[in-house]
């Protein structure tokens, strides 16, 4: 599924501080969490893909996004399991599973087992500050044309579930 369009490596901390907003830097580099309902993506239903805000690594599709009512963008699965890694998180007196990007090792959010059963039962609760949305009509221009056949298969899956 992966067709490298460049490096997904982590830039220097100096470069990150120049490129990211304070909120993005806190979320992605310091394992922060944005406030619920504060992201432009939490309730978006636009068609396209979500990529790592720094590296551009493809992470999720709009077909796997669902309304969870939690205030953060929620997805049932990543585009490619290899694009994320999970890590045990015991911060804040809780036991959770943190989701990090493989490319760049950035904090994205957490994954929970309370997602829709018909979609596999997982809820990837992702900070909007850690992702960038690419609308379907811009996918080719942005260099992700290799994902178009995948999006079409996901579109068929979504239609079959209705």
Automatic annotation (TrEMBL):
Active-site residue numbers: 125 (nucleophile)
EC class name: oxidoreductase
Signal peptide start-end: none
Cellular component per GO, a single term: cytoplasm
EC number: 1.8.4.12
GO biological process: protein repair; response to oxidative stress
Molecular-function annotations in GO: peptide-methionine (R)-S-oxide reductase activity
Domain MsrB: 13-136
Catalytic function, reaction form: L-methionyl-[protein] + [thioredoxin]-disulfide + H2O = L-methionyl-(R)-S-oxide-[protein] + [thioredoxin]-dithiol
Keywords: Oxidoreductase
Keyword Oxidoreductase included in the entry's annotation: yes
Highest taxon in the source lineage: Bacteria
One Pfam family here: SelR
Family the UniProt entry places it in: Belongs to the MsrB Met sulfoxide reductase family.
Stated name of the protein: Peptide methionine sulfoxide reductase MsrB
